[in-house]
Write a structure and sequence with these properties.
The complex is a heterodimer. Chain A is α+β, with helices and mostly antiparallel strands. Among the domains of chain A are: 57-123 and 295-313; 141-265. In chain A, 28% of the residues lie in helices and 34% in strands. Chain A has 4 helices and 14 strands. The longest helix of chain A is centred in the first third of the chain and has 38 residues, at 12-49. Chain B has helices at 2-30, 41-60, 64-68, 94-102, and strands at residues 71-72, 77-78, 108-117, 123-130, 139-148, 152-154, 160-164, 181-193. In chain B, a hairpin with a 4-residue loop joins strand 1 and strand 2. The chains are: A alpha+beta, B alpha+beta.
């Protein structure tokens, strides 16, 4: 700093040099400040794109996972247990409690409190024929008979059909009629001229014919809920269990069709009319107690969200 | 008088430059390609959505569970994988192919982990795909999967084998012996840019 304190040389020239330096430095600061400002603008832009709302996805996912868990649990208790409705209901509650224990443990790791519990069950009745070599007649041998009357819903209609027993052509072939306030829909099973099984679905929507995908060992499966016949897709089949009000199921010409089948209807054996069926386990075809559906209460809590819902679960 | 003012101005400017350069230097050193920064927030949002979508799709079209069942019962690992899972890429399953298409082929790394609760009630993890340690800006998505007793393990080729989970020595044990419920596991997909 000796020069600055020394004798003025050239007077104002030295001052100008110093001001020039200060000016340059000020400009440098200004540029840095501008850069910071720009960065702030970018950061603000980023903040604006972040989600400000409450994240509800996890609660919805938990609900959907619980529903799937409950569907599997209902199917499991129906399959493993055909005693009283009370036993089925308690087995379902235990299974769902076990499901919820583990699932809630997983969610707790994320800091979310989740709970799913069975709050109610809908009693149903399963109608089935286990003997695959028997025809589709009633327990007394009648070919035209009422399988079930007075039900308020039907689900899980599945056939394991013996293809060799089927009649050729749709006329007077085995037919299942499902009648409700929606109208009467029917499913006819027959072989065509080259002995390939066909399903004919008739109803208020019109008539559809579906060929069976594959016949293995002389049998093929008809799954109404999945809309499949012998593994091939047949969407018209799913109309059959689309019912409202009181449901009646009848078989016509059960002597020209055979195999195993099962379906679950909404209603207990005391409220239903099951004239052509044997008591549980005594003969084929028979009925057993089953769960038709259940209501599950789901609650999900995160620091931002509290979600509670009750869902009705009915397997397909 | 003039000179004193200039000195003061100079000193303040110098101090500001010093502080600004310190701040700037600190910011600069923190930014590396693998550092989480505000500028990668958009991409993080995108990748979180992609991960969530991948798991949702896989669950919906039924390819998620077969990947969990792609288990070599005798070796005690996933088919053709190490004890740490698949360390070189996606598993050879339908879901694995989707992961490869959507992530690895686009330069995005991922880890796929199955979390389960063991008999003692502790939450444990088993890696299905382990492509390394996620970086600071990794995002994750999870999904609950219910496994059932009669779910069948898949063969090396991906077809359904005769071994049910009930009779297999799987990662996790049967939760409810008397019912068909086998276990509830959580699948976690962590994705990050390489």
């Amino acid at each position: 700093m000796a020069d600055l304190n020394g004798v003025r040389r050239g007077g104002s020239d030295a001052d100008r040099g110093q001001l020039l330096l200060v000016g340059a430095l000020s400009l440098a600061v200004l540029f840095v400040a501008l850069a910071l400002l720009l960065n702030t603008a970018i950061y603000t832009g980023n903040l604006a794109t972040r989600e400000a709302g409450v994240e509800g996805t996890e609660a919805i996912e938990y609900t959907s996972a619980s529903r799937e868990g409950a569907v599997a649990a209902i199917e499991s208790v129906n399959r493993r247990n055909d005693s009283s409705h009370a036993m089925l209901s308690s087995a379902l509650r235990e299974t769902m409690a076990a499901w919820d224990d583990t699932a809630a443990h997983h969610r707790a790791v994320n800091g979310d409190a989740a709970n799913a519990a069975v709050v109610g069950t809908t009693n149903g009745t399963r109608v089935r024929q286990r003997e695959a070599n028997r025809n589709f007649s009633s327990v007394g041998g009648a070919p035209d008979w009422t399988v079930v009357d007075g039900a308020t819903g039907i689900r899980s209609i599945r056939f394991e059909v013996n293809a060799t027993r089927l009649k050729n052509g749709p006329t007077d072939s085995f037919r299942m009629n499902v009648s409700s306030a929606e109208g009467t829909r029917s499913l006819s099973l027959y072989n065509n001229s080259t002995d390939d099984p066909r399903a004919l679905i008739d109803g208020p929507e019109g008539t559809s014919v579906c060929p069976a995908g594959s016949v293995t060992g002389g049998t093929f499966a008809v799954d109404v809920a999945n809309g499949s016949i012998g593994g091939a897709s047949c969407s018209a089949l799913t109309r059959l269990d689309d019912t409202s009000g009181t449901v009646t199921v009848e078989y016509d010409d059960g002597d020209v069709g055979g195999g195993a089948y099962s379906m679950v209807v909404n209603g207990t054996s005391s409220s239903l009319s099951l004239p052509g069926l044997a008591s549980p386990g005594t003969d084929d075809p028979d009925w057993t107690d089953a769960l038709y559906g259940a209501s599950i209460r789901i609650s999900y809590r995160t620091p931002q969200l509290e979600y509670t819902t009750t869902v009705a679960v009915v397997p397909a | 008088m003039d000179r004193g003012q200039a000195h003061t101005l100079e000193a303040i400017t110098a101090a500001m430059i010093l502080v600004s350069s310190l701040v700037f230097a600190l910011q600069v050193t923190a930014v590396t390609p693998l550092t989480g920064s505000t500028s990668s927030q958009h991409i993080e949002n995108q990748q979180a959505a992609v991960a969530e979508g991948l798991l949702a799709t896989a669950e919906e079209n039924g390819t998620l569970t077969p990947t969990l069942l792609h288990w070599n019962d005798s070796a005690g690992t996933w088919h053709n994988a190490t004890q740490d899972g698949y360390v070189q890429g996606a598993p050879p399953t339908a879901f694995g192919a989707t992961l490869a298409d959507a992530l690895s082929d686009r330069g995005v790394a991922f880890d796929l982990t199955m979390h389960y609760v063991d008999a003692a009630g502790n939450r444990k993890s088993r890696a299905i795909v382990d492509l390394g340690e996620p970086s600071d800006h990794a995002t994750s998505a999870t999904r609950l999967v219910t496994l059932e007793d009669d779910d069948r393990l898949r063969t090396q080729g991906g077809s359904v084998s005769g071994t049910t989970l009930e009779n297999a020595s799987y990662v996790v044990d049967d939760t409810v012996a008397e019912q068909n419920l086998y276990a509830v596991v959580e699948v976690e997909l962590v994705v990050w840019r390489i």
